[in-house]
Write a structure and sequence with these properties.
Elements (H helix, E strand, L loop, with lengths): L3 H32 L9 H17 L6 E2 L2 E2 L8 H13 L3 H27 L2 H12 L2 H4 L10 H19 L6 H18 L7 H10 L4 H5 L2 H23 L3 H15 L11 H7 L22 H23 L12 H20 L9 H34 L6 H10 L4 E5 L3 E3 L2 E4 L1 H12 L3 E5 L10 E4 L5 H5 L4 E3 L4 E4 L3 H7 L1
Helix pairs in contact: 1-4, 1-5, 2-3, 2-18, 3-4, 4-5, 4-7, 4-15, 5-15, 7-8, 7-9, 8-11, 9-14, 14-15, 17-18
Length: 512
Amino acid sequence: MSGIVPNAVRGSARNDRTAILVGAVLVLACAAFMFVDRHVPPLILWDESRLAVNALEMHQRGWSLVTTYGFEPDHWNTKPPLMIWLMNASVSVFGPSELALRFPAMLAALATIAIVFVFTRRVSHSTWTAVLAALLLAGSVGFYGEHGARTADYDALLCFFTTAYLTVFYFAVHRRRPGMRHLLLAGVLVAGATMTKTTAGLVPGVGVALYLAVSGRLHRAYTTPRYFMLLLLALLPLVAFYLARERLAPGYLEAVWHNDFSGRFRDKLVRQGGPPWYYVQLLFRDGLFSAGPLALLAPLGLAGAKGQTRQGLVFALCCFFGQLAVVSITATRLIQYILPALPWLAIACALTVKARLPRFLGYSALQRPSWSKLILPLALVTVAIVNIGVRTAVMRYDLLLGRAYYPQAGYGALFTSLRERGVGRLAVLEPGFAGGGVTNYQPQFDYYALLWRTRGMTISRIEKLPLQRSPMVTASCNPDLGGALRARGAYTVGSFGCVATNLPVSLARSTE
């Protein structure tokens, strides 16, 4: 008997080491899939380029509670500055570049994948179920695409904090009296979520309340004061920031109230959006989630899941449906609002596969199916896997990259090309558009102009083409104005369709 225990312990330790190795390789593979391209994509319009301006201006002016745009207090982007601070820190370490600005979001996304892997393995006791959950998440364009892991935006960091604190809460609520260590960790993570995106950081908590109600544990939330104390302490950093920011830049609280609270839920702040089933369409029809319509089968896992796997599946479904319900009733509906639900949808799908796939293939505790009976179900599983793989590849390498390269995203490439050819002073014809709190909004130009001014270029902006010719190099990436510049002898520069006039003869020939 004494020899059995050490063998069991050694087996468990060996399994843990294997899981750690598999998890590490998995995270690296996900990083390669999500982030490795032949060229670094330019900053996108919404909302990455505005955050990049916030971060670069803070890098030039110094750390501050007040984020700026055009070196004036930013009352349009009213989110707390945690993400901007992280981007500024990354730029301070690596220098200003697209990759440096995106580095915090990339790390946060990889950490989220790691949490999904650990949580799924913990509740399913299956490394390969955990691998499936992580792959379903990493393969979802809603997770890594615009506003997600590949962009310098808030939502990847928000998703990390919310996934982490929901995981901590899951293990805490299964204790009659949650330990202070768990609650303090959860409080720090909730504070991080609110300091990233205010109320959006609290919305996933609806899933915890739903789980407590479904599992008959709701009384635990109000029989101990620790949860209420946790919430109050977690909100202190946000409240302190609001008060300090209002004192430094009056008018901020009024803007916050409209942008992040009343306006977000009551008024449609942007033209984009759709019906209440908007997110259902995006996830299950339009491919925002990697499994597509197959993910609708996730609740069927409840029929076969048992023990911790069933508890984990119920919790994951509650977190997903809780987030889905809240963001579906708001007046403003944007793609990124559903991002914190994607880790839990991936977990639910993976746990359902673990619970139902053996039964689907014909396996049971008493018998194994013959090969003839396996042919049809295996063929269906193969078709599903191929379908998910093809759709994922199309989303990643066709749709996503196609959306990244458009004319007004080309100012960085334009300035790089002109600088390499000796142009140090130019005027840019860019009228912008109404948005971002101004009438001539073009944050992609603003960021790249700000960046290249720090590198010694003199870049001015004009909104209309002057009647008289100017001897200065004049350029534009605005497709509506390219024809007017070409009429004055402009040449195409780079691969974005940007044009420049009054180039030196040698440079003009090299761009033909």
